[in-house]
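Run log, item B.
One chain of 153 residues. Sequence copied directly from the ordering sheet:
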Amino acid sequence: MGNSGAGKSRRAREMAQQRQLQHLDLDTIVFVPGLIAVARPIAEAMADLHAFATASGEWVIEGCYGDFIEAALPYCTELLFMNPGRDACLANNRKRAWEPHKYASKEEQDSMLAFLLDWVGKYYERDDTCSYRYHRRVFDGFSGAKRELGQLA
């Protein structure tokens, strides 16, 4: 888990490939397919999360949704908190490659960049399920194996 641009997706893809794990990007269950930032009903998305976690054997799940990460913890063997700091996350979002599973075109994705950068920049001040405060609480409260990667902003 971590802020947008923290390196979660890259790290998760690498881990999944190296260890032959199933991979779930939480964006794919949280949002309505083909619609930008339109959330599915939380009960449906949570049901998909639980189905994945129980059916997939060994897996890696990644995302910024602290409530979904928290819901996955009973199935979790190791928790990684990607926390490279505000500047690194902003820089990574500025150079983000086109995400065709989220946007119809690179231009459409780029049209959302200003909103995304504002949201990412407020990570340490926000108090929502995708905030540093929420992530810190989840990480600190997890009693299993865990690692925090990066530096504090």
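Observations after the first pass:
- The CA atoms of residues 30 and 41 lie 8 Å apart.
- The beta strands are 22-25, 59-62, 78-82, 145-149.
Flagged for discussion on Thursday.
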